[in-house]
Amino acid sequence: MPIHYPRAMLRAHRLHPMELWGPPHVERHEGSRHFQAYTCDIVVKAMSFIRSGGLGASKAILVPHTCDALQGMGSVLGDFLDPDQRVLTLYLPRGRRGSDHEFLQSELRRLATTLVEVSGYEPSRADWDEAFEAEDAADRALADLYQRRDRLAISDRDFYTVVRSREYLTAEQFCQQAAALPEGDPPERGVGLMISGIVAEPALFDQIEAMGAHIAGDDLACGFRRVYSVSAQADPFERAAYRLLTSPADPTCGTPIQARVETLEARMRALGARGLLIYDPKFCEPELFDVPLLRKHLGACGFPVLHVEFEMGDRLPHQTLSRIEAFVETLS
Ligand code: SF4
Prior knowledge:
The chain is of the alpha/beta class. It has a domain at 7-119: Rossmann fold (3-Layer(aba) Sandwich). Helices cover 49% and strands 11% of the residues. It contains 13 helices and 6 strands. The protein has helices at 7-12, 29-32, 41-51, 68-81, 98-119, 125-147, 156-164, 171-179, 202-210, 236-245, 257-271, 285-300, 318-331; strands at residues 60-64, 86-90, 191-197, 213-220, 275-281, 305-310. It has a 4-stranded parallel sheet, sandwiched between helices. A two-stranded parallel sheet has the order 1-2. α5 crosses α10 (236-245), α6 packs parallel to α8 and α11 (257-271) crosses α12. The longest helix has 23 residues, at 125-147. The structure holds iron/sulfur cluster. Residues 2, 40, 42-43, 66-67, 69-70, 198, 252, 281, 284-287 line the site of iron/sulfur cluster.
């Protein structure tokens, strides 16, 4: 489950993550039996998917403590529903102090003990080294994609298809895909938008392009918020904790609002974005807390903000698209 977790640690234990962000096409019905009505689609639809046997081939379900909704999901799965897969949790600190690093390292050690039980494999020093080398290369490839965005001859939809393939490909496959993208001028671009939020489905990018706009940059949990810094500490837990605690500004990690505003403002100016589109799944609490202050402070800097909430599904609702279109018109 989203958003932040230690990829190299899974690999060292010979496990491969497949991320569940919904999935959008799944009905809420089965999952909604286990949560309050005001729980987001990411959690409810994932629960429907799990309950319908969608995870048949997997050995464990890792639920990081991203928010109260995911913490609730971890509890419901682990304490009440007893799925075929082992349920694993990971408590992520909400600060970046020395004590947060120490806490996360001990959480990662606890998780590693459970991973040995799940996989039946205790990693050697060589396994850890190999895993960090491969996953760091993929992290660098993702960061490099963002650096090269203006020199890639691909649409926003194609760009985010590759960015999001990190959710299911191996590190090597991801690096190959990223390296194979054609260099050149991007297609005709229109008004630049910064998009913020948790996740955006591919069809949204086509619609935004048809409205005469493009994505100048993102602040998405499934995108730029996972451009991690890599390091070379000898201790694997220290190294894994460093990666997770140096991710970009992110409300689910407790980034103070002032830091978020400053980061967004600087990135929007550098990337040529004219306004901020906050595109959130309905009922996403960590995102909602920041919206009024982002609107106020970015508005004062000259950047209009539109906040839309959506329900995940096969189609984007007309009402949502009309609001985005009207916003783009005001920026043109
Ligand atoms: S959409 Fe928001 S509330 Fe739902 S799992 Fe993600 S961060 Fe948590």
